[in-house]
Structures are given as structure tokens and as C-alpha cells.
């Protein structure tokens, strides 16, 4: 926020440091950063996602110490990690399930943004950076899934790299460039390993920009109204650090359940068969977090059209801030949008289910209907809703709404017991 | 900044643009090796051809060999299969081009242009679905062969006929026929 530069170095060393590298001021800003006092547990997923990124980098760097990116050794080196390396199975399961947990958290984080209108002015850049992170996560997750060199790794890599061959004229050349050969082979595995190691650090960089873009306008909140004065906020530390910490513990319980009790629940058994370029498994599916987009790909009966629709499903998120014409942010005050939001969530879940089903009969028809609805939500429903919907009256301020909810007379309470800071 | 008392481009503007262009072009030259290193290298290109012995394949049987990391389907077709493929009018085909690397581009996809001349019982094609690169089923005796008796891709449901032509499903092209030569009656070279 604008009144950042309030940090006063408290001793000679910090004064000396502050003149050369004002890093303590940033720490001070992060700790005191004013957060709306009404934000709920849906707002704790930012912190949870930061944890996920760090956990993936730490476990990933360690796994790379034991993994061999070569087509004749990759599959065996994974088994070596699982059987021989001390705690290797734990590290691998934490990394593999960590990817799924990362995506669970990011989808909740995104749906929270959709529900409470967190993408609207002045937070468009914050939202766009978030979509960039989501795309990078998908790239990292995809390349990571290729590394064990099982059947699903190989055929997933084949299908996804073949998507690029749908591009007119240059498609084939791009595909050969990605493969480094005439099929998915050793050069492909090598470069995927290199990029899989690189992308998390790019994500970390974009996360810094994402947090920066958050700290300029400040957090949105469940009411979607602007912070008016200090009474509407509490400092990040200790209030949000404690709240985020508690939510993280709950999240880690779920994480631990998968790692310790059901580590292969979100994987696919075919990936424990070594890659065979001559045999495609009867039913190939991507990791669960790509399923909705996979369903959109398969819903279109044309190769290029399917690819365009799949990428379009993500691209539409970039322009979402300008597609939603309503000035009111929070769905709490938008009765019609609120219903359409839940229909949209169901639509995404439905697409996810259909992505896992074989591409035949009723499943194809259902995928087509839901694909059309997915795009209609963004391109028709949101622009029109902003014009026809009559929002409920917005509260005067965050403070007043909080106090009203707790039964007190707002004016009397705020006068008698003003919040600290 | 540039002189403002005239609309004509000044000497300084010219130097500015020339320097910028020079840097941009130089930068592009610098980037090219960083991109081109990803293209197939000499060792990948060196694996360009293989020889296959066909003497063990009976009529109606199939064999799959690996060429350039990809499966190549070899089927010794029965008379009925050839008959069925020839009976299809060109107007029924999704992709009317032969996709045969031994023929000029744009040749029609009739059965004569799919199989090697004079050796019509042999159908030799890259076994990669032209949709998203899966290996279609149909080589094994008990495999699902699709609605047209040829091959069926389980990934996204493309059906190929007994000449390896796409007949139904999302694949845009017929299966590719690679460059091949018969070294003798029972021996071929692919690539």
C-alpha cells in the first residue's frame, strides 16, 4: 500500500543495512500488511499454495538427486527411489500427491476468486498473473508426469505434444522441435526433465509479482466492497499468519492421508508399466486435474477445433475481468450470478467426470453440451447478467457489516470500542 | 531527443532506427542456435532406414516393426480386404489424398495408391493415428478393428478401413505410407 515507508530501523545494524538494502522494510510491510478483517477461510488458500510450491521444490530437488532422465533407466530409477533410497518412497509420494494437492488448492483459490469477484478492477493484473501461474503449473505437472516413463507418461506426452501438430502449416515442425526426433523418445525425456526443473522457479518469480499485485490494491473480501479506513482491517501478523497456519494444518491432514494411506489413489496403475512405444493402453486418461480440459478437447469433432477450444477454455480466463460487466464484486449481493456460479462449478465437475470416461455415445454428447455451457458462462451469461441483474444493497463498510452481523448497534459499538489499528 | 523543428527524419533518427534494427537482427541470429538445438539431431536422423523380412507373414496376418521410434504396420491383406478397399468410392473418404510418401503429393487415395504397385496384398503404413498420435488397434487377431475392418484408435475413436484410410472419427488424415522399396519379393527397406 502507499503508506509503506513507515519502517524505522531500531538499531545501528538494521539502520546500516536499511541504507544499503531496504529488505527489512519489506518484511515489516508484510507483517503489518492491512488485511480486511472479514476475510474467511476461503482466503487461506494463497498461503496453502505458497506452502505447496515450496514443498514441491524441496521434494523435487531431492528426487532429482536420485532420478536418471534416460529412456532405458528412468523407469528403473523411479523403482530405485521407491525401494532403495532412504525415505525415497515417502519423498516420491509426497511429490506426486503434492502435485494433486497443489491443484486442489489452486482450483479452490480460483473458484473463490470467481465467487467473490476478486478479478474485477482494480485487481485485473493480479488475476491475470494468477492465470499465468495456473498455465505454468499445468506445464510443470504435465512434464513431471512424463518423467517416470510409464505407459501413461509416454502416451500422455504423445497426445499432448501432438496437439501442436494441429496448428496449420508450422504444426509438424513445432512437434518435431518439441520431440527432438520423430517420436517421443530420449531427447524428449531429457528436455522435459530440464524444463520440469526450471518451471517451478519461474512460478516462484510470477508468485512474487502476484503478491506484489495483491499488495497494491489489497485483498478483496467476502463483501466485495472497498476497505474504507483502518477499522476495516487487521494486520497480517499475527491475525492472518495464525489463520493461514490453522488452515494449513487442516490441509496437511488431507495431504498426509493421501501420502501415508492412499498414495496411488490419484495416480493410474498403467503408469507402473514401463513405456512401450508400440502399444497404446486401451484407455488413456490424463491426470485428474486436466480432465475438464481434456473433455473439452474431445468434445469437438475436429482436430484443430478441439485444440483451439481446449486452449480457449483457459484463454477466456485472461479476459474475464472485461467480460463480467457487473460493478458489484461479491456473489453475496448478486442473487442471479450466485446461482449461475454454482451451475458453472457443477459444469466444470461434469466436464471433469466426462474427461475420464471413454469418448463414445452419450459421453460425447454430454461433453458437447457442457463445453458449450462453459463458454456461454463467460461469453454470454456474465456480460448479460451485469446488465439485467439487480444487485442487493451493499453494506456501508466492512466494519459496519461485521458489527451488524454480531447483533450490536454498529454506531454505538464503533464509538465505544474502536478496533485497534 | 530528435530535433523537433522539422518533420523530415533527421540523421539522428536514422542512426537510432539503424542501430535498433541491427541489434534486433543480431539478437535473432543469436537465438536461433538456442532453438535449433531442440530439433532432431544427427543421431536421430541416422536411424532413418530399416530392412524387414516379410517371409514369415501369412495371408491375413500382420506384423509391427519399429522405425524412427514409431510402429510401422505391415499387413498381408486377404483378397476380400483388397476387394473391400477398392469398392469404396473416393467421395466416401474423409481424406481424399493418398498420403503415400512414394507418390507425388495430392495423389488420390484409391487403393492402388495406398499399397505398393504390383504388390497389392502388402499394406505398409506408419501405425500412428493422425489425430493425436496413439497406436490404433487392429494388428492382433483378436483386436477391435473398427467399423471398416481395418484399424481402430481407442484414444479418441478413429476408424480406419482395410487400406488404412480414415473413415470415421476425429483423425484428419489417412495413415501415412512411408518411403519403401522392395529389395526382393520378401524383403523391404523402409525409409
Strand pairing plus helix content of chain B: what structural class?
alpha+beta
Report the strand count of chain A. Answer: 2
Outline type of chain A? globular
Unreliable segments of chain B (pLDDT under 50, ≥5 consecutive)?
none
End-to-end separation of chain B in angstroms reads 61 Å
Total of DSSP H or I helical runs spanning 4+ residues of chain B: 4
Overall pLDDT score of chain A:
92
Average predicted confidence as pLDDT of chain B: 87
Shape verdict of chain B: elongated
Question: Could you list some keywords that capture this structure?
Answer:
heterodimer, A: 421 residues, mainly alpha, Cytochrome Bc1 Complex, Chain C, Helix Hairpins, 17 helices, B: alpha+beta, Rieske Iron-sulfur Protein, three-stranded antiparallel beta sheet, 4 helices
Question: What can you see in these coordinates?
Answer:
- The complex is a heterodimer of chains A (421) and B (191).
- Chain A contains 17 helices and two strands.
- Chain A is mainly α.
- Chain A has two domains: 29-284, Up-down Bundle (Cytochrome Bc1 Complex, Chain C), CATH 1.20.810.10; 287-390, plastocyanin oxidoreductase (Helix Hairpins), CATH 1.10.287.980.
- In chain A, helix 3 (45-64) runs antiparallel to helix 9 and helix 6 (124-146) crosses helix 7.
- Mean pLDDT of chain A is 92; it is low at 409-421.
- Chain B is of the alpha+beta class and 191 residues long.
- Helices cover 23% and strands 23% of the residues of chain B.
- Chain B contains four helices and nine strands; from the N terminus they run H-H-E-E-E-H-H-E-E-E-E-E-E.
- Chain B has helices spanning 11-36, 42-46, 79-86, 111-114, and strands at 50-53, 62-67, 70-76, 122-126, 149-153, 158-161, 166-168, 180-184, 187-190.
- In chain B, the strands form three sheets. A three-stranded antiparallel sheet of chain B has the order 1-9-8, with no helix packed on it. In chain B, strands 2-3-4 form a three-stranded antiparallel sheet, with no helix packed on it. In chain B, strands 5-6-7 form a three-stranded antiparallel sheet, with no helix packed on it.
- In chain B, a hairpin with a 2-residue loop joins strand 8 and strand 9 (187-190).
- The model of chain B has no long low-confidence stretch (mean pLDDT 87).
- The chains are: A mainly alpha (421), B alpha+beta (191).
- The interface between A and B is medium-sized, with 33 and 29 residues.
Amino acid at each position: 500500500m502507499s503508506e509503506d515507508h513507515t519502517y524505522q530501523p531500531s538499531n545501528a545494524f538494521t539502520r546500516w543495512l536499511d541504507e544499503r538494502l531496504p529488505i527489512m522494510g519489506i518484511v515489516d510491510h508484510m507483517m503489518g500488511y492491512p488485511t480486511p478483517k472479514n476475510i474467511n477461510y476461503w482466503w487461506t488458500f494463497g498461503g496453502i499454495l505458497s506452502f505447496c510450491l515450496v514443498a514441491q521444490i524441496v521434494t523435487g530437488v531431492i528426487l532429482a538427486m536420485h532420478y536418471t532422465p534416460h529412456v532405458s533407466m528412468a523407469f528403473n530409477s523411479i523403482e530405485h527411489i521407491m525401494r532403495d533410497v532412504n525415505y525415497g518412497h515417502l519423498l516420491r509420494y509426497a511429490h506426486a500427491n503434492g502435485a494433486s494437492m497443489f491443484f486442489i488448492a489452486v482450483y479452490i483459490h480460483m473458484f473463490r476468486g470467481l465467487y467473490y469477484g476478486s478479478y474485477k478492477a482494480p485487481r485485473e493484473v493480479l488475476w491475470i498473473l494468477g492465470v499465468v501461474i495456473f498455465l505454468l503449473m499445468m506445464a510443470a505437472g504435465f512434464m513431471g508426469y512424463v518423467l517416470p516413463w510409464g505407459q501413461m507418461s509416454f502416451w500422455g506426452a504423445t497426445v499432448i505434444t501432438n496437439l501442436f501438430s494441429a496448428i496449420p502449416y508450422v504444426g509438424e515442425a513445432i512437434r518435431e522441435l518439441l520431440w527432438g526426433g520423430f517420436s517421443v523418445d530420449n531427447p524428449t525425456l531429457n528436455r522435459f526433465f530440464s524444463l520440469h526443473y526450471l518451471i517451478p522457479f519461474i512460478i516462484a518469480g510470477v508468485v512474487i509479482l502476484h503478491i506484489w499485485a495483491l499488495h497494491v490494491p489489497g485483498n478483496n473480501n467476502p463483501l466485495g466492497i472497498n476497505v474504507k479506513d483502518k477499522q476495516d482491517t487487521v494486520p497480517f501478523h499475527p491475525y492472518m499468519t495464525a489463520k493461514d497456519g490453522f488452515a494449513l494444518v487442516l490441509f496437511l491432514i488431507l495431504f498426509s492421508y493421501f501420502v501415508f494411506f492412499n498414495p496411488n489413489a490419484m495416480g493410474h496403475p498403467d503408469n507402473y508399466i514401463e513405456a512401450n512405444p508400440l502399444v497404446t493402453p486401451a484407455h488413456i486418461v490424463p491426470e485428474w486435474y486436466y480432465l475438464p480440459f481434456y473433455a473439452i478437447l474431445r468434445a469437438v469433432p475436429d482436430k484443430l477445433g478441439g485444440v483451439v477450444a481446449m486452449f480457449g477454455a483457459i484463454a477466456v480466463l485472461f479476459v474475464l475481468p472485461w467480460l463480467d460487466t457487473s460493478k458489484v464484486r461479491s456473489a453475496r449481493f448478486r442473487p442471479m450470478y450466485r446461482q449461475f456460479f454454482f451451475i458453472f462449478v457443477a459444469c466444470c465437475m461434469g466436464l471433469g467426470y466426462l474427461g475420464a470416461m471413454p469418448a463414445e455415445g452419450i459421453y460425447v454428447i454430454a461433453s458437447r453440451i457442457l463445453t458449450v455451457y462453459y463458454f456461454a458462462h463467460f461469453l454470454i451469461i456474465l456480460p448479460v447478467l451485469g446488465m439485467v441483474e439487480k444487485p442487493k444493497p451493499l453494506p456501508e463498510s466492512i466494519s459496519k457489516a461485521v458489527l451488524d452481523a454480531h447483533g450490536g448497534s454498529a454506531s454505538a459499538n464503533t464509538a465505544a470500542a474502536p478496533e485497534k489499528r | 531527443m530528435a530535433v523537433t523543428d522539422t518533420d523530415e527524419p533527421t540523421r539522428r533518427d536514422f542512426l537510432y532506427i539503424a542501430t535498433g534494427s541491427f541489434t534486433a537482427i543480431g539478437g535473432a541470429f543469436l537465438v536461433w542456435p538456442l532453438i535449433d538445438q531442440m530439433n532432431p539431431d544427427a543421431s536421430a536422423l541416422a536411424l532413418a532406414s530399416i530392412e524387414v523380412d516379410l517371409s514369415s507373414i501369412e495371408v491375413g496376418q500382420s506384423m509391427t516393426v519399429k522405425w524412427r521410434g514409431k510402429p510401422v504396420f505391415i499387413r498381408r491383406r486377404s483378397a476380400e480386404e483388397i476387394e473391400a478397399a477398392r469398392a469404396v468410392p473416393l467421395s466416401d473418404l474423409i481424406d481424399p489424398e493418398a498420403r503415400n510418401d512414394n507418390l507425388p503429393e495430392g495423389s488420390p487415395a484409391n487403393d492402388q495408391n495406398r499399397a505398393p504397385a504390383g504388390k497389392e496384398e502388402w499394406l505398409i503404413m506408419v501405425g500412428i493415428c493422425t489425430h493425436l498420435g496413439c497406436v490404433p488397434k487392429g494388428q492382433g487377431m483378436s483386436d477391435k478393428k473398427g467399423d471398416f475392418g481395418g484399424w481402430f484408435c481407442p484414444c479418441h475413436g478413429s476408424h480406419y478401413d482395410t487400406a488404412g484410410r480414415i473413415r470415421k472419427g476425429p483423425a484428419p488424415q489417412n495413415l501415412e505410407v512411408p518411403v519403401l522399396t522392395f529389395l526382393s519379393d520378401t524383403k523391404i527397406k523402409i525409409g
